[in-house]
């Protein structure tokens, strides 16, 4: 069951597009830092989707409510790395994960945007939803304060694996923040499954972009 009355927001146009015929470099500004993101047209994961902009903006504006300083943060489906970079600027210890074919561009963006900063360098790791979680991220070693996920739900067959991954990493005390553009019935079906398992609140809606931002936590008996 969903709780809360979400705030209605607009994704701010705080970036300057730079266009080339193959690689687009997008310039963003969050938390007083200019962030340059290289996108690749080859992979879904290598483009900045609206959910990442929405959650980056929300975290920047709500630092008292969600204080990331020195917190352990895992981003699943990190894509270009924009949100992981923002979380890093906000002081988090970030692990950015995605599929193997996305990691090169992800690592490039993260290292170029954090190399000159006095902050915790994000770790970039492979994570295939639902696969090898116990081996790669054993519960005894890995506990995260926040799980971040943006635009991870779209037309694909891995939604059960995605949900299983969220369940695996969400321990008591962990906050899952999920921002997604809602386009298809599958998006709402996933939301329904999520809210059957977790305490789920809609924090914000961005109607112009069809983005909803949700907070989920483990139900403690």
Number of domains: 1
Poorly predicted sequence stretches spanning 5 or more consecutive residues: 16-23
Order of helices and strands: EEEEEHEHEHEHEHEHEE
What is the end-to-end distance?
16 Å
Total strands: the figure is 12
What would you say the CATH architecture is?
3-Layer(aba) Sandwich
What fraction of residues sit in β-strands?
25-35%
Shape: globular
Residues in helix, %: 25-40%
What is the overall pLDDT average? 89
CATH superfamily: Vaccinia Virus protein VP39
Q: And the CATH topology?
A: Rossmann fold
**At the first level of CATH, what is the class?**
Alpha Beta
What does the largest sheet look like? 9 strands, mixed
Structural class: alpha/beta
Gyration radius, to the nearest Å?
16 Å
The number of helices is 6
Organism: Pachyramphus minor
Pfam families: Methyltransf_16
Protein name: MT21C methyltransferase
GO molecular function: methyltransferase activity
Could you describe the 3D structure shown?
- With 221 residues, this protein is α/β, with parallel strands linked by helices.
- The protein has a single domain (44-218), classed as Vaccinia Virus protein VP39 (Rossmann fold, 3-Layer(aba) Sandwich), CATH 3.40.50.150.
- It is built from six helices and twelve strands.
- It has helices at residues 50-61, 82-89, 103-114, 133-136, 159-169, 185-197; strands spanning 2-3, 7-8, 15-18, 24-30, 33-39, 72-76, 93-98, 123-126, 146-150, 175-181, 198-206, 211-218.
- Strands 1, 2, 6, 7, 8, 9, 10, 11 and 12 form a nine-stranded mixed beta sheet that branches. Strands 3-4-5 form a three-stranded antiparallel beta sheet.
- Helix 2 (82-89) links the parallel strand 6 and strand 7 (93-98).
- Helix 1 (50-61) packs parallel to helix 2 (82-89) and helix 2 runs parallel beside helix 3.
- The longest helix is centred in the C-terminal third of the chain and has 13 residues, at 185-197.
- The radius of gyration is 16 Å and the shape is globular.
- The protein starts with a strand and ends with a strand.
- The model is unreliable at 16-23 (pLDDT under 50).
């Amino acid at each position: 069951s969903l709780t809360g009355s979400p705030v209605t927001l607009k994704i701010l146009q705080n970036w300057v597009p730079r266009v080339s015929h193959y690689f687009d470099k997008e310039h963003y500004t969050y938390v007083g830092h200019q962030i340059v993101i290289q996108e690749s047209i080859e992979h879904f994961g290598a483009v900045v989707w609206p959910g990442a902009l929405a959650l980056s903006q929300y975290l920047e504006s709500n630092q008292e409510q969600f204080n990331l300083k020195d917190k352990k943060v895992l981003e699943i489906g990190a894509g270009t790395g924009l949100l992981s970079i923002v979380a890093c600027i906000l002081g988090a210890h970030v692990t950015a994960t995605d599929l193997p074919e996305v990691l090169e561009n992800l690592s490039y963006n993260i290292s170029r945007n954090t190399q000159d900063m006095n902050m915790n360098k994000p770790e970039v790791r492979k994570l295939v939803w639902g696969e090898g979680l116990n081996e790669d991220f054993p519960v005894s070693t890995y506990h995260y304060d926040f799980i971040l996920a943006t635009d991870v739900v779209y037309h694909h067959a891995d939604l059960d694996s995605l949900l299983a991954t969220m369940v695996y990493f969400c321990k008591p005390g962990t906050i899952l923040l999920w921002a997604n553009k809602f386009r298809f019935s599958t998006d709402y079906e996933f939301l329904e499954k999520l809210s059957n398992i977790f305490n789920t609140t809609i924090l914000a809606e961005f109607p112009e972009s069809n983005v909803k931002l949700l907070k989920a936590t483990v139900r403690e008996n």
